[in-house]
Amino acid sequence: MIKRILLSILDFLLFSNLFIGICAVAQGLVTYHLLHVPADKYILAFLFFATVGLYNFSMLLAKPKDPGNSPYIRVRWIFSHHRLIISITLICILCLIPLGLWYLSLESKLLMVFTGLMAVGYNVPFLTLNKQQIGLRNIPGIKLFLIALVWSISSVLLPIVELERSYQINISSAETLLLVAKRFLFIAAITVPFDIRDLFQDKLYALKTIPVMLGEKKAYVFCQFLLGLYVLLLILFRQATVGDIVALTLTIILTGWLIFKSNIKKNEYYYFFYLDGTMVLQYLALLLVTWITQL
Predict the structure, then answer these.
(1) Of 157, 151, 57, whose CA–CA distance to 110 is shortest?
(2) Which one, 18, 127, 135, 212, has the greatest CB density within 10 A?
(3) Under a CB-based contact definition with an 8 Å cutoff, are residues 189 and 226 in contact?
(4) pTM for the structure as a whole
C-alpha cells in the first residue's frame, strides 16, 4: 500500500514535469553558487514555471494516435491525466506573465522569447521541404544541440543577464562563455541516453538523432567524451574553488557511470529520475562540500 502511494507520488512528480522544473531551478542555483552571488528568487521561479510549461506543452503537441497503448509509461500517464496536464500548463503560463513582465529586464525578455521559440519550433512543423511540413526535429543532429543550448541559455545566460542589467554585477565574457560551455556539455551528455532509449522509434520516424547517426555503442562513447571535456574545462579554467571542482568532478564521474549503466532495457524511472536527477545532484554536492569546508 505504502509502495503504491509512493510510486503514485513519483509518477506525478516525474510525468507532470514538476521534477524537471526542480532540475531547472537546481541548475540556476548552480550558476549563482559558482558566481558567488545570491540567488534571485524571481529568476528561479521563472525557470521553474517556464520549464514545466514548455515540457508539458511539447508533450501535448506530440500526442500519439493511441496514447493508451503507448509502450511508454510516461505517455500513458500524461494522456490518462490529460486535464491535469492542461491545468498545470495553464497555471505555469499565468505565473510566467507577471514574472516576465515585471521582474525581467528587456534583454532577458528578448532572450527568453528567442529561447522559447527555439524550443517550440522543435515540435511544431513550421518549415516546408519537398511539400512536407517539418519542424526543427527533422534537421539531422539538431535535437541534442537544441536541448543543450536551451538549457544553457536559460540556466546560465538568463541569471547572468539579470545580474548585469538589474543588479549591475559585472560577469566577464570569459567566465560567461566557460559556464555556458560546461553546462552545454553536461546537458548534452545526459540527453544522449534518452535518444539511445528511443533509437528504434526515431529510426521509424526518420529522425536523425546522434544515436541514429553514430549507432548505440559510439553514442555511449560520445557521452563520455562530452563529460571528459567538461572535467577538462573545469580543471584548466579554475574560476571555481577547489571544493566546487571536487564536488562537480564527483557528480560528473557518477553521471558517467549512470550513462554507462543505462541501456534500452532500463525503465523510464531510471532516465527521468536518476539521469535527470544528476542536475539536482550537482547543486546538492556543491552545498555539501561547502558545508564540509566550513566546519
Answers:
(1) 157
(2) 212
(3) yes
(4) 0.92
